[in-house]
Amino acid sequence: MSKADFHDASAPATVWRQARAVSGQAGGPPLADSDSLACEQAVALEYNGISHAALLCSPTDLEDLAYGFSMTEGIIRGAEDIRSVDVLEDERGSLLQIDIASACLHQLKARRRQLAGRTGCGLCGLESLDEVRRSLPALPEPERRPQADAIFRALDALRDSQPLHRLTGATHAAAWCTLQGDILAVREDVGRHNALDKLLGHLLRQGLDPRQGMVLISSRASFEMVQKAAAMGIAFVVAVSAPTRYAVQIADELGVMLAAFARDRAFTLYSHPQYLNSSEPVSTTTP
């Protein structure tokens, strides 16, 4: 795949709005202007007729969201467990009617959410502390590993692969890259968790091997983001912003190389630095 797969940044992902620009220059009147705003809408997920969760997200790539959310929540075991996804639209938002294998209904009930999730919230609606962290096996040590130059190359390309962010400045991105640094797919959303779920859903639907690449996220690295990657078998997560302590702990335990503060041809490794195949000096931090 030579060209990155990312969604069209046209409506309904954005909408133009009349606005007035105000400057601090003395005597400068407000100027008539227009601006592009990122759309945000309610999306409800329903499994086999059972209401499960409601999210606020960008109204794009919703089938990818259905697959990615279902996988990272532990509701399904793989893409084959989803029989169909129907997207219904009305003035209130979107309803994803997801038909899953009957063997997955137990897991669905175990992860049942009772509250609506705010934009970008990965935990809203879970009822107990036991539900926060999933029981996942540690990933095997990867056979193939990226070099620092590959990560820098992917980071450079990420800047040009976020059309919604360029238009609105209001979205996060998650990108899937080869271990050589080529970006194959990007998903954007007003919520960082949604962007990652959409990307992971794309991998599921396309049958891409999660062991053959790495994930870049334009946001901070919270533990839920690391957990989502590990649930898919992805051993390399690179974040443009900071990690949290819990994210580093989870990455250590699950066998994920976590790099953060990735910008300006530098990044800091917080877990499993031995997974990096690099001839260049890279900062390593021990939490």
Mind explaining what this structure looks like?
With 287 residues, this protein is α/β, with parallel strands linked by helices. The protein has 2 domains: 41-131, Ubiquitin-like (UB roll); 148-284, Cytidine Deaminase, domain 2 (3-Layer(aba) Sandwich), CATH 3.40.140. The chain is 24% helix and 31% strand. It is built from 7 helices and 14 strands. It has helices at 62-72, 105-110, 148-158, 163-168, 192-206, 223-231, 245-254, and strands spanning 5-6, 14-21, 31-38, 41-47, 50-57, 82-90, 93-100, 172-178, 183-189, 213-217, 236-239, 257-263, 266-271, 283-284. An 8-stranded mixed beta sheet has the order 1-9-8-10-11-12-13-14. Helix 6 (223-231) packs parallel to helix 7. The longest helix has 15 residues, at 192-206. The two termini are 38 Å apart. 42% of the residues are buried. The model is unreliable at 114-119 and 125-129 (pLDDT under 50).
